[in-house]
């Protein structure tokens, strides 16, 4: 059984896209934990995610939008004591980019070093109208080990064909 920790985006709940579609596509071989993180608050989200990350050794971490960027921030802060199998991000903003200046959600300066050994897969739709697709290349500059998956017609919520994501998960 492959364990997955899923973190939703801002203003969403675990029942919002793309998690229901992922549950259907992945099937019974995956055990998905998806906490309700509540309204966006860096301290609250860290307090919810940190213990789960500690408990889910070797899990695949999936984060949508703010949920993804906050998983990476929390992992960097926790350091080498937490060793997930991989991270998969969907439409993740890179805080600190122009127009994306919320210090509480920004990665610590040491994040590239802290995350250097983590296998990272980043998906971003070219038609995302919430987080510009240029965040994808900014992530690659910060985390060179990341594999990028620009996709078509998924919007911000990833409500289209998720087969590329399912294939990437099966390879981890």
Explain this structure.
This protein has 172 residues and is an alpha/beta fold. The chain has a single domain (2-170), classed as Alpha/Beta hydrolase fold, catalytic domain (Rossmann fold, 3-Layer(aba) Sandwich), CATH 3.40.50.1820. The protein contains 6 helices and 6 strands. A 6-stranded parallel β-sheet has the order 2-1-3-4-5-6, with helices on both faces. Helix 1 (19-26) links the parallel strand 1 (2-7) and strand 2 (30-33). Helix 2 packs across helix 3. The radius of gyration is 14 Å and the shape is globular. The mean pLDDT is 96.
Apparent shape: globular
Instruction: Please indicate the count of domains.
Output: 1
pLDDT averaged over residues: 96
Helix and strand composition category = alpha/beta
Low-confidence segments, given as residue ranges, are: none
Overall CATH architecture = 3-Layer(aba) Sandwich
Provide a count of the helices: 6
CATH classification, class level? Alpha Beta
Sequence-ordered SSE layout with sheet pairings:
Elements (H helix, E strand, L loop, with lengths): L1 E6 L11 H8 L3 E4 L8 H14 L4 E5 L1 H13 L7 E5 L20 H4 L5 E6 L8 H9 L4 E5 L11 H8 L2
Parallel strand pairs: 1-2, 1-3, 3-4, 4-5, 5-6
Helix pairs in contact: 2-3
